[in-house]
Amino acid sequence: MTEFTPYLSLFGGVLIGLAAVALMAVHGRVAGMTGILAGVIPPLATDWAWRAAFLAGAVAAPLVFIAAGGSVAFSVPVSTVALVVGGLIVGFGASYGAGCTSGHGVCGMARLSPRSIVATVVFMIASFVTVYIARHVIGA
After folding, report:
1. What pTM does this model have?
2. Are 2 and 59 found together in one domain?
3. SS3 letters for the chain?
4. Are 47 and 99 within one domain?
5. What are 29-72's pLDDT values in tens digits?
6. Which one of 11, 57, 77, 84 has the fewest CB atoms closer than 10 angstroms to its CB?
């Protein structure tokens, strides 16, 4: 079971919100990780520099947290094959859904985008069904 951490969760959510607002204010872009990542994979987007900086910050933040004395509890309860298959399914879904949960769920819903609201509802229903099947049908 995961430990309940309301203050760390609130702080993390505030940082995500501030980053999304800052990116929209400075560059007029939505902070969707799939779209940001796509711009640094060849062929590079013309605005690849801010994308690379955003991704570097996303990777560096937990490292800074650990260097400051924090700890990140991390375990992977599935095989590498399951991780790869899951990653491909998520990647296909993000491509098919024209964005990922960060783009639709955080930024799109904040802009009251009907497409993003529908996409986020579909993401949530799919996750509820997946957890139910994994825990109660398969027994994982």
Report:
1. 0.75
2. yes
3. CCCCCHHHHHHHHHHHHHHHHHHHHHHCCCCCHHHHHHCCCCCCCCCHHHHHHHHHHHHHHHHHHHHCCCCCCCCCCCCHHHHHHHHHHHHHHHHHCCCCHHHHHHHHHHCCCHHHHHHHHHHHHHHHHHHHHHHHHHCC
4. no
5. 888 888 898 899 999 999 999 999 999 999 998 899 999 998 88
6. 77
